[in-house]
Amino acid sequence: MAHQPARTARIEFWFDFGSNYSYPAVMRIDELVADSDTKVVWRPFLLGPIFRSFGWETSPFVLQKEKGAYVWRDMERQCAKYHLPWKRPSNFPRRAILPMRVAILGSNEPWISAYNKQIMLMNFAQDRDIEAPQLVGEVLQGLGLPAPEILRAAQTDENKLRLREQTETARTRGIFGAPTFFVGEEMFWGNDRLEDALDYARKQSEEAGSGPKD
Amino acid sequence: MAHQPARTARIEFWFDFGSNYSYPAVMRIDELVADSDTKVVWRPFLLGPIFRSFGWETSPFVLQKEKGAYVWRDMERQCAKYHLPWKRPSNFPRRAILPMRVAILGSNEPWISAYNKQIMLMNFAQDRDIEAPQLVGEVLQGLGLPAPEILRAAQTDENKLRLREQTETARTRGIFGAPTFFVGEEMFWGNDRLEDALDYARKQSEEAGSGPKD
Questions:
Q1: Residues B127, B131, B137, CA angle at the centre, nearest 5°?
Q2: Do residues A179 and A120 touch, judged by C-beta distance below 8 A?
Q3: Which of A48, A168, A213, B170 is 20 to 30 A removed from B119 (C-alpha atoms)?
Q4: Inter-chain touch A174–B73, beta carbons under 8 Å
Q5: What are phi and psi of A153, to 5 degrees?
Q6: Which H, E and C letters describe chain A, residue by residue?
Q7: Helix (H, G, I), strand (E, B) or coil at B114
Q8: Given pLDDT bands bounded at 50, 70 and 90, which one contains residue A62?
Q9: What number is the average pLDDT over the span B150-156?
């Protein structure tokens, strides 16, 4: 077609609800893409099996106490900077398999971004047990969704397998932490690289849009 | 005094010439503080003994190959963003004890910032062996300094001890990587936090300046 519009930019957002630096990124991305034609592709995956593949039994923020001590102060400052509520989780890293299964089930649904934010707030602003079915159900209900139905679908073998497979994909793509963003094959690691990843996505789509039309 | 001016803000800049993320921070800080009354206090220290105290024999970017693969691409992009030249060092992390001894010797001298930049460029833009006395001498000469005299003073037992002691101070202050910035007791880790550290320093000094005069 002669008048094909510029391509929509796409950014893959790989995250785990237990990951503290995923929290500000989940909270910030909608506003950052609001004025642009960028589509966020949500990619929930489990960080635990990735860490175990490195021989680590838990988060490096727990294993390396010097970095761990720093990280909680940094989170406090970062959340203040972004005007996000913050309460240090009393349990870290928090198990989040049930809410992650719901996230992968709903990853293409219109409610996914609002759901991700609510679960993140439960973990990092309210210090709640995000693995509890009741809490996940309340979050879904609060979004006007059929909670029992979604929770049932999230716990099917097929959906459980989907989360395991996505975690394996994360590993094979070289993901070693969260949040991680992909724009095509270009990887960006950390909340600190979110703006850079979005700039890159926009430039790529401009170039694609201004190239030869098919 | 009744008319004491606002206090000069101070930021401690802890770095190692072998540290790749110290490179953009060393190159950027002068411009970032140019319009403000912020004093940079240079704190060279050796990252190697810090890593060894964690049981690591070398840089985590070498030990953890997934992160390592990412870091070099990230450096390339970060340097492009900051308009800094970049060439991946063929030897990493590069031994830098001699230039570090010169840095601690000159840490209060007017030439220190220019010297730090030149050594960093040799490592991360020219892939040169920065441990070679001839190279360090050339850098000093290029700055119009008495190179043989400075190299001699850098290699005295007293100055060698000073670098070992500063490294031990880094460890006791909880430093686990470089660059690290301190504003008072507030620690900021990484080139990504340089702007935040400077903002914090300015706010602290404004508060001190607007407080009761002595």
A1: 100
A2: no
A3: B170
A4: no
A5: -65, -35
A6: CCCCCCCCEEEEEEECCCCCCHHHHHHHHHHHHCCCCEEEEEEECCHHHHHHHCCCCCCHHHHCHHHHHHHHHHHHHHHHHCCCCCCCCCCCCCCCHHHHHHHHHCCCCCCHHHHHHHHHHHHHCCCCCCCCHHHHHHHHHHCCCCHHHHHHHHCCHHHHHHHHHHHHHHHHCCCCCCCEEEECCEEEECHHHHHHHHHHHHHHHHHHHHCCCC
A7: helix
A8: confident
A9: 98
Distance from CA of A47 to the nearest CA of B (A): 14
Average per-residue pLDDT in chain B? 93
| Distance to chain B for A176, nearest Cα, Å | 6
| Residue of chain B minimizing CA distance to A173 | B66
Strand order across the B180-183 sheet = B38-44, B9-15, B180-183, B186-189
Residue A86 CA to residue A72 CA, distance in Å, equals: 10
In terms of Cα–Cα distance, which of B107, B71, B101 is closest to B191?
B71
CB B136 within 8 A of CB B99: yes
Measure the CA–CA gap between B63 and B71, rounded to whole angstroms. Answer: 12
Report which residue type is found at B129: D
